[in-house]
Amino acid sequence: MNKKKSLSAYEKACELIPGGVNSPVRAFKSVGGKPVFIEKAKGSKVFDIDGNAYIDYVGSWGPMILGHAYEPIVETIRRQALDGTSYGAPTLLETRMAELIVSMVPSVEMVRMVNSGTEATMSAIRLARGYTERNKIIKFAGCYHGHGDSFLIKAGSGAVTLGLPDSPGVTESIAKDTLTAEYNNIQSVEALFDAYPGEIAAVIVEPVAGNMGVVLPELSFLKGLRELTTRYHALLIFDEVITGFRLAKGGAQEYFGIVPDLTTLGKIIGGGLPVGAYGGKKEIMQQLAPVGPVYQAGTLSGNPLAMAAGIVMLETLNNNPSIYTELDRKAGKLAQGIRNNLQKTGIPGVVNRAGSLMTLFFTNLSGVKSFDDVMQSDKQRYAAYFQSSLEAGIYLAPSQFEAAFVSHAHTDEEIERTIDASYRALQHLAD
Ligand code: PLP
């Protein structure tokens, strides 16, 4: 595969942008080699500037559940742009968006739009602190909630990929208010509630962890979080930036039947434009300015382009429940195909899957259920598998600690091609 143009584009980008990228994982640092530069995308495919085509399982890290450049969304963006791209004043689009989110996501009675998942989680914990009048939060090792200071403590995603789970620049006084517990270990949460009585404002969790690779929650763990937070008068925040509208139209909370107090959203709700949202019980949301005292604002919040695109996205998902059955079927087929390949080639590994999210962990363990399990994975093996896949025209996340995203645009034929390519990549590892 010729990647000459990408190579020189990367050299130039590195002169001008730190690491040549605007988000760290894109730099391929943990898998080696240089990133490919994307020129365009359509459906399940991305195309690089050298003209190579790839079946894409990154999907912009989640938003592209209907595939790239989905025609009704593109058309809506085009039409909206002609009417202006930002007004800084209320629009009907924002109310329609709120109406859709409230009708689809069980815990959300009111919602506030922001511009990214990071803003959503930062604002949600400020609200939780304001509402409870407490300072500390509990997060889980390996979970990622964006790059807000309070969350860069034992964080997942790029932070764990680059081996930087705690970032310089986060002050000690902020770090001391973030307590860390173990995913799928309810005792570790209870111990923190015991150790800090009356101090914990909220527990924030990815209801299916996606940012240490996909790790499924035990149902008893999620139920335990609901019980503990209720007992100790702390808020339960589901960070559904990945799982929202992906696992089900009502996200993981619908999928598992557990209702948090606050929910953070992003990715899919923007239809590929920059957006985030947080919502929950009316009584809590009414604490936000201008009604209440907790301040949060945004020049581009509720941006008409993002709202218009997101509305088409959510209406499509809301009106077509078969999308979720199809996503589950296709992702199930892919996961099973990869499991069969592991068996045939004798390469040890575990495929974790929740709906259209999955991760192949290169590990000798029989299951991957915690961050400790995740950390035993063989990153070198993943790097080699990633490179073989890329050469075969399969674009995977450039990190062992991320999810693969299957979209509605992936065809059965593409899933089969991916399984074949995975077999060859695994065979290569076995040689
Ligand atoms: N929360 C979760 C669960 C995420 O996966 C991410 C991003 O990957 C974020 C928050 C942050 O979202 P953003 O990158 O839009 O700021």
From TrEMBL:
The protein's annotated pathway: Porphyrin-containing compound metabolism; protoporphyrin-IX biosynthesis; 5-aminolevulinate from L-glutamyl-tRNA(Glu): step 2/2
Gene Ontology molecular-function annotations: glutamate-1-semialdehyde 2,1-aminomutase activity; pyridoxal phosphate binding; transaminase activity
Quaternary structure (record): Homodimer.
Catalyzed chemical reaction(s): (S)-4-amino-5-oxopentanoate = 5-aminolevulinate
Protein's UniProt name: Glutamate-1-semialdehyde 2,1-aminomutase
Gene that this polypeptide is encoded by: hemL
Cofactor(s) recorded in Swiss-Prot or TrEMBL: pyridoxal 5'-phosphate
GO cellular component: cytoplasm
Protein's cellular compartments: Cytoplasm
N6-(pyridoxal phosphate)lysine sites (modified residues): 267
BP term (GO), one: protoporphyrinogen IX biosynthetic process
Record EC number: 5.4.3.8
Database matches in NCBIfam families: hemL, PRK00062.1
Superkingdom: Bacteria
